[in-house]
Automatic annotation (TrEMBL):
<keyword id="KW-0472">Membrane</keyword>
<keyword id="KW-1133">Transmembrane helix</keyword>
<feature type="transmembrane region" description="Helical">
    <location>
        <begin position="127"/>
        <end position="150"/>
    </location>
</feature>
<keyword id="KW-0813">Transport</keyword>
<feature type="transmembrane region" description="Helical">
    <location>
        <begin position="20"/>
        <end position="38"/>
    </location>
</feature>
<feature type="transmembrane region" description="Helical">
    <location>
        <begin position="372"/>
        <end position="397"/>
    </location>
</feature>
<feature type="domain" description="Ammonium transporter AmtB-like">
    <location>
        <begin position="22"/>
        <end position="424"/>
    </location>
</feature>
<feature type="transmembrane region" description="Helical">
    <location>
        <begin position="285"/>
        <end position="302"/>
    </location>
</feature>
<dbReference type="InterPro" id="IPR029020">
    <property type="entry name" value="Ammonium/urea_transptr"/>
</dbReference>
<dbReference type="GO" id="GO:0097272">
    <property type="term" value="P:ammonium homeostasis"/>
</dbReference>
<dbReference type="GO" id="GO:0006808">
    <property type="term" value="P:regulation of nitrogen utilization"/>
</dbReference>
<comment type="similarity">
    <text>Belongs to the ammonia transporter channel (TC 1.A.11.2) family.</text>
</comment>
<comment type="function">
    <text>Involved in the uptake of ammonium/ammonia (NH(4)(+)/NH(3)). Transport is electrogenic.</text>
</comment>
<dbReference type="InterPro" id="IPR018047">
    <property type="entry name" value="Ammonium_transpt_CS"/>
</dbReference>
<keyword id="KW-0963">Cytoplasm</keyword>
<dbReference type="Pfam" id="PF00543">
    <property type="entry name" value="P-II"/>
</dbReference>
<dbReference type="InterPro" id="IPR017918">
    <property type="entry name" value="N-reg_PII_CS"/>
</dbReference>
Length: 566
């Protein structure tokens, strides 16, 4: 009889190793994809003139950070954790690098959190310099203390000897997210707020981000990757029993991790939306998105031990605290945390970590008091280390004048000043190809000269979204040359009320574009008619068109003057 699969002499250890390696790699790639979420989330919460800068920081966080963590950081983490100092590059077993990569994506998550707090004013060199230090020393020390085999915060370390219980952080609620949120808050404090963020009397001005769509898209991408973060930490699917049989390892309880992660995520969004509604009478979209992430952060330290009802508690509290803590940071601490890094990652991570013994499933915790003391001690140690190290690095950059950009560069936007690019170079669609060159001669029925032989300036203030249609109309009228400027103003269009994270602000200066078209051989009225045709929607705020005489004109290249120059 042919042997079946179960009757073959396959070494169960080979199966266990292969499946475990594959699982770790898959969840590692999921966690890496979270960087796309961070990029979109942060890009949506900054002003349009700073989008490219924020995206560049996210790209360099991964690129610089992962290289540094490979060369230095992982070895320092092992040393602090009691495993000795061993450079990753000297690994004899190539599959050992799978474990390194799994640790690296956690490290880079902690690093990229900081960029959202310092958006809009930090110099690229300062941020990249901090990323280097974080990946080399700051995060590895925290990870080694909490996750090393004999780290100071573990049951076998100094904390265990002192209290009798080790610090519990399953997937990095405090070690990764809490640490990143605290680092971001510290960096934002050292740098100071963005220009115009606060008035002379200390009151705060709202500076809305440019794309709520990007922010929500980034939120959902992060939530998807978070399953790799939490569920993936149950890294061993199979193990070999003493009798040599194949059995489930961490996967024996992986369903609890998946369940509590999902419930806390949902309750975080509900909690933040509810508090925002109670505060303002409206359910703020950005708070709901940020609350969803806060719920995930809150459960990340304890999804393996939390009862199902505990996930509701942790997620709800983590989301509900978000609007309150953000207001405290903004109004009382006067710290400009652009992307709400601390309420989302810092305070939510701390709260979830401290709730460990109170929401644990039956039989998990022997002594609530002892377990809580260990959690408090772990949070305190990580907080002190992170604040001190971050303040030292950014303080050093600030001391030599390299921490933040100049006022002129901040006004212009970091996209142009730091990278020489414009993220949104085109105003309207569709684009009309215009050569600005010679047009066919216009034969006039009255035999006269256009504009009575004079030069005229046609100026229009119109809606930005109508620019493409106006360009098309002008090209068809034979007036392809024009100048376009971004402006803001008010006229008959009524003011509106806007909200950003629950704070209301008045929008009475509306975004417009100013079109200037100087004509000589084309009747000004035809240009006016062309602009009106392209700009009209029939609603208040369509704009106005002005026609003014031009005294003279000179073409720089040829020296021609008068109508010939136009």
């Amino acid at each position: 009889m042919e042997p079946t699969l179960l009757q073959t002499d396959v070494d169960p250890q080979v199966i266990a190793d292969g499946v475990n390696l594959l699982w770790v790699l898959v969840v590692t790639f999921l966690i890496f994809f979270m960087h796309a979420g961070f990029a979109m989330l942060e890009a949506g919460q900054v002003r349009s003139k700073n989008v490219a800068n924020q995206l560049t920081k996210n790209l360099l966080t991964w690129s610089v950070g992962v290289a540094v963590f490979f060369l230095i950081g992982a070895a320092i983490s092992g040393f602090v954790g009691g495993d000795g100092f061993s450079l990753t590059l000297t690994a004899e077993n190539p599959n050992a690098w799978v474990d390194w990569l799994f640790g690296a994506v956690f490290a880079m998550t902690a690093a990229t959190i900081v960029s959202g707090a310092v958006a809009g004013r930090a110099k690229l060199r300062a941020y990249v310099g901090y990323t280097f230090v974080l990946a080399a020393v700051i995060y590895p020390v925290v990870a080694g203390m909490g996750w090393g085999t004999a780290g100071p915060l573990t049951a076998d370390g100094a904390l265990g000897d002192l209290i009798g219980a080790g610090f519990h952080d399953f997937a990095g609620g405090m070690i990764v997210h809490g640490m990143g949120g605290i680092a971001g808050l510290t960096a934002a404090w050292v740098l100071g707020p963005r220009m115009d963020r606060y008035n002379d009397d200390g009151s705060a001005n709202v500076i809305p981000g440019h794309s709520l769509t990007f922010a929500v898209l980034g939120t959902l991408i992060l939530a998807f990757g978070w399953y790799g973060f939490n569920v993936g930490t149950a890294a061993t699917v199979f193990e070999i029993t003493e009798s040599g049989e194949l059995a489930l390892a961490s996967f024996a309880t992986v369903g609890r991790v998946a369940l509590t992660t999902t419930l806390a995520m949902a309750c975080g969004a509900i909690g933040a939306g509810l508090v925002a509604w109670l505060k303002t009478g409206k359910v703020d979209t950005l708070y709901v998105a940020n609350g969803l992430l806060a719920g995930l952060v809150g459960i990340t330290a304890i999804p393996d031990t939390t009862a199902w009802w505990g996930a509701f508690v942790v997620g709800g509290i983590a989301g509900a605290q978000l609007p309150i803590v953000f207001e405290f940071v903004e109004e009382y601490l006067k710290i400009d945390d652009v992307c709400a890094v601390f309420p989302v990652h810092g305070s939510a991570g701390i709260i979830g970590t401290l709730l460990f013994p109170f929401v644990a499933a039956p039989g998990v915790v022997d002594s609530v008091g002892t377990a809580f003391a260990a959690q408090v001690a772990g949070v305190a140690v990580i907080t002190v280390w992170t604040v001190a190290a971050t303040a030292l690095v950014f303080g050093a950059f600030k001391a030599v004048g390299q921490a933040r950009v100049s006022e002129e560069h901040e006004r212009d936007g970091l996209d142009v000043s730091e990278h020489g690019v414009d993220t949104y170079p085109e105003f309207g669609q569709p684009d009309v190809a215009t050569d600005g060159g010679h047009t066919e001669e216009i034969i006039r029925s009255d035999g006269g000269e256009p504009n009575d032989g004079r030069i005229k300036m046609v100026t229009a203030i119109v809606r930005p979204d109508r620019l493409g249609a106006i360009k098309q109309s002008l090209a068809e009228a034979g007036a392809p040359s024009l100048t376009v400027t971004n402006v803001s103003g008010r006229g008959s269009q009524p003011a509106k009320k806007g909200q950003w994270r629950g704070e209301e602000y008045t929008v009475d200066l509306h975004q417009k574009v100013k079109i200037e078209c100087v004509v000589a051989d084309i009747p000004a009225q035809e240009v006016v008619d062309a602009i009106r045709e392209g700009a009209e929607t029939g609603e208040p705020g369509d704009g106005k068109i002005f026609v003014m005489p031009v005294e003279g004109a000179t073409q720089i290249r040829t020296g021609k003057t008068g109508p010939d120059a136009v």
